[in-house]
Amino acid sequence: MLKPTLAAILLLLGSLSSALTAQTQPQTQTSATLKGDPAHPAKTQRWVDTKLFFGLGPADAPGQGVSEASWRNFLDTEVTPRFPSGLSVIDVYGQWQSKPTQAQPRTAPERIRSKMLLIDYPATSENLKRVEAIRAAWKQLTGDQSVLKVTQPADVSF
User: What CATH number did the domain enclosing 77 receive?
Assistant: First the structure.
């Protein structure tokens, strides 16, 4: 018959003690999603991701066109009140070819400084109207022909 050594008994008691301590301590798990915020749900249904592209002015002449201060004012007065829960803005460079006219039947693309606005939201008619109001406000403010809009379904989680 084998006699347990003192070291083996202490090792066994230490393991039992650790197991009991782990069972009595609360388990803390960090969730990857935000919980309890209706504006930023952990799971979404029928949400979309919309990108809007706003031309600020010629890429080669930063002093011309819409200034950063004017852009922020537009963001504060036209965009944020319509989508206060959150959005993103990215500086981008783009090209745009104006609509041909009789006087100028073919035009070269303009290289322009731009902002891309990213908004994720529930696809409701009210939210779609808000997006269109933002586009219309920019065209009225700047005289631009267009604000490019790209919308696609989105699986969103906060």
Answer: 3.30.70.120
How far apart are alpha carbons 127 and 87 in whole angstroms?
A: 13
Q: Which helix H or strand E contains 154, and what residues bound it?
A: strand 148-154
Domain count, the chain: 1
In a domain, 17, yes or no: no
Nearest to 75 by CA among 91, 59, 64, 89: 89
Q: Which residue segment(s) compose the domain that 54 sits in?
A: 47-98+109-154
pLDDT in tens, 95-121: 888 777 787 777 788 899 999 999 999
Q: Is residue 66 part of a domain?
A: yes
pTM, entire model: 0.72
What residues have CB less than 8 Å from 157, skipping those under 6 apart? 32, 33, 41, 42, 43, 44
For 14-37, the pLDDT digits (tens) are 554 555 555 555 556 676 666 766
Instruction: Characterise 151 by phi-psi region: left (phi > 0), alpha (psi -120 to 50), beta (else).
Output: beta
Distance CA 122, CA 156 (A): 10
